[in-house]
Amino acid sequence: MDRQEAERLLEERVARRREHDFVAADAIRDQLRNGGWDVVDSPTGSELQAFQAPASGATAQPRAVTLLTVVHGWQPDAERWLVSVFAHCKADFEAVIVDNSGEPRIAGWLAKRSAERLRVITLSPQLGFASAVNAGIDAAAGEVVVLFDPGVELKGDAVTPLVQTLADPSVVLAGPYGLRGKGTLKEFEASAGPEVDAIEAYCMAFRREDAQAVSGFDPKFRFYRNADIEFSFRLRDRGGRAIAVAGVPIERYEHRLWESTDPKERERLSRRNFYRFLDRWGKRDDLLVGQ
Fold first, then answer.
1. What pLDDT, in 10s, does the model give residues 180-212?
2. Cβ distance 214 to 262 under 8 Å?
3. CA distances from 139 to 60, 68, 176, 214 (A)
């Protein structure tokens, strides 16, 4: 559904709500959601937010692995990641960049980056973090997807040990940065594992088929924080394990989304996302490793 049609439906929904016809208003909201739009109601009015990328008709050449990142700006970070991927990946790979920046400068830079194993997905309008990742997962041609933060640089063959870990059918998620609950689902800490409760999205590998079986990341996580924990539990709830892999040669730099967000706002958004996680998983202590 395009924005013009979505805005027409939004106006109709507002009119139905003024008439206290909430059944009709809810039906219109469902229609909007089916078309890829969410409605956020507030005291100042109702606002449209896209949460789903348009379906792509393009078919890419199948690959063993898709190396995926979502770019929100900061071209030097994205270029450093991209150069390191082509320099060090030994697998049959493709690199997929989801441009969620809305910046003509980034679009222009990506248009000049042409390579057989590089694909760019441009999102317009921009989506929340989780939906942008899902757009990349849906477009991926690899059996395995490795999601990276663009602030990461490969210093060697970081992909092979992750793919090898996923060769074990009991493993659904692998990455260098693991988390374990501190005896509770209300607090997590870094863990070397090897078996952990969650993998951080600085670098996380999973099978595309498994991700699609759980409908990917939860689109309600428009801000990135804690979306990786929730996704980890989605995958593990189907019976699989998350494994922290030691010695993966990558380096983390500044996390731009964190640093560029006002401290009070990022705390508010992080807290709201964690409450979302607890709403769904707060009673699932059985999923904690060792419980």
1. 999 899 999 999 989 999 999 999 999 999 999
2. no
3. 8, 10, 24, 16
> Per-residue pLDDT for 48 more than 70?
no
Kindly state whether residues 43 and 156 are assigned to the same domain. no
148 and 78 both lie in a single domain: yes
How many beta carbons lie within 10 A of that of residue 192, not counting itself?
Answer: 12
Cα separation, 139 vs 208, whole angstroms: 10
Token duo for residue 246: 């030691």
**Mean of the pLDDT values across residues 71-76?**
90
Amino acid letter, 156: G
Query: 108 is in which domain, residue-wise?
Result: 63-260
Torsion of CA 31, 224, 180, 248, to 10 degrees: 120
Considering only CA atoms, which of 95, 214, 75 is closest in space to residue 146? 95
